[in-house]
Amino acid sequence: MRHISAFNKKAPPVLVTPNGAVNPRGTVDAPKGQFDLRPTVTRFQAMEATVDSREQRALEIADRFRIVESNGQFFVPSQKIANKKYAVRIGRASEFCNCPDFELRHTPCKHVLAVRLTIQRELNFDGTTTVTETVEVTKRTTYPQDWPAYNTAQTTEKDHFQMLLHDLCSGIQGPIQTNGRPRMSLAESAFCAAFKVYSGFSARRFMSDLREANERGYVEKVPHFNSVLNALENPS
C-alpha cells in the first residue's frame, strides 16, 4: 500500500518554455518583445498632466512675480525671458493672452491662470475687493552742505552755550544770606544744573566742565558735585 501511495503521488508540474526548454522553477520565460509591461498612458491622462503642469507654473508666477493691472489688462512677467511681459485680459465670457501657448491652443495658459489666482486672492470673504494701487514716490530734494560753517558750529557749540547760559542766569536774584556758611548763589545753582543736563554726563564726570566754566568766569567757585545734585533736586 505504501508503494502504491508513493506511486500515485502527483509529481510537480513541469513547464516548457516556448523555445522547448524545460523550466524547473515552474515559470515560463517569455521571449523578448512578446510582453510589454510598461504602464499605458492614455491621451486623456497626458492632457490632464499638462493641465496640472500649467496650474503649477501659474501658482509659481502668482507667488514670485508682481502682476500689474492697467486699463483692463494684466501684465504677467515671463518665467523664461527677462523683462518680457504678456498681456492678459479676463472677461466674463472670454479670456485672452498674447503668449504663443494661448495663440496655439486658445485655452487658458499659465498666464491666464496666474491672473485668476491673483484676482481670487484679492477677493475678501465679505465680498469686497482689495484694490492695489501704485504710488509714485517723489525723490526728496537735497541741498549742498556748507561744511566750513557746519564744522565751526559743532566745534564751538559748548563755548557759545556757556556764554548764553551765563547771560541768562545772571539776572536771577536769590535771597540774601545773613547767617551760616556761604552757599552757592541761586544764579550759579541754575547755571550748574542746566549745564550738567546739557553735558549729559554724571555729576562726577561733569566736574571737568565746571572747572572750565570757573576759568572762564562763569562761576565764582567750583562747587562739589553733591551741590550740583542738590541744585537739581531743589524745587525753588
Question: Which strands sit side by side, in order, in the main sheet?
Answer: 3-4-5-6
What percentage of amino acids are in beta strands? 5-15%
Helix and strand string, N-terminal first? HEEHEEEEHHHHHHH
Number of separate helices: 9
Helical amount among residues, as a percent range?
A: 40-55%
The main sheet comes to: 4 strands, antiparallel
What structural class do you assign from the helix and strand content?
Answer: alpha+beta
Low-pLDDT residue spans: 1-8
Report mean pLDDT, rounded to a whole number.
80
From the alpha carbons, calculate the radius of gyration and give it in angstroms: 47 Å
What gap, in angstroms, lies between the N and C termini? 135 Å
**Strand tally, please?**
6
User: What overall form do the CA principal axes indicate?
Assistant: rod-shaped
Textual characterization of the structure:
With about 240 residues, the protein is α+β, with helices and mostly antiparallel strands. Among the domains are: about 45-120, no CATH class; about 155-170 and about 185-235, no CATH class. The chain contains nine helices and six strands; from the N terminus they run αββαββββααααααα. It has helices spanning about 1-10, 45-65, 100-105, 110-120, 145-155, 155-170, 185-200, 205-215, 225-235; strands at about 15, 20-25, 70, 75, 85-90, 95. The strands form two sheets. A four-stranded antiparallel sheet has the order 3-4-5-6, with helices on one face. The protein has a two-stranded antiparallel ribbon with strand order 1-2. A hairpin with a 5-residue loop joins β1 (about 15) and β2. α2 packs across α4 and α7 (about 185-200) crosses α9 (about 225-235). It is rod-shaped and about 105 Å long. Residues about 1-10 have low confidence and may be disordered.
